[in-house]
Specification:
By secondary structure, this protein is α+β, with helices and mostly antiparallel strands. It is built from two helices and five strands; from the N terminus they run E-H-E-E-H-E-E. The radius of gyration is 12 Å and the shape is globular.
Length: about 90
């Protein structure tokens, strides 16, 4: 099965609302590898890698995010960022 990789930047009220923890849970349930981190500009950035259907579903799930989040925009593109064997949280950049 081929894998797809997406670089995602999520805008809105996405920090301080458990977005990164929620993404880790979603990624684990979908069998996705990659990473997520807060950015100093107030956005959340992630790289998600896995089967195309799971990656597409994760991008769609990010449009809503966890209950306290208010997503206003998602920018995504193909990714060539390196990822490990699981989904992890990285430090703010």
């Amino acid at each position: 099965m081929s894998e797809t990789a997406r670089h995602v930047v999520i805008h809105g009220r996405v920090q301080g609302v458990w977005f990164r923890g929620w993404m880790r849970q979603e990624a684990q349930s979908l069998g996705i590898r990659g990473w997520v981190r807060n950015r100093r500009d107030g956005t959340v950035e992630a790289v998600i890698v896995g089967p195309a259907e799971a990656v597409d579903r994760m991008v769609e799930n990010c449009r809503a995010g966890p209950p306290m989040a208010r997503v206003t925009d998602i920018i995504f593109s193909a990714s060539e960022f390196p990822v490990g064997e699981r989904f992890e949280t990285l430090p703010t950049q």
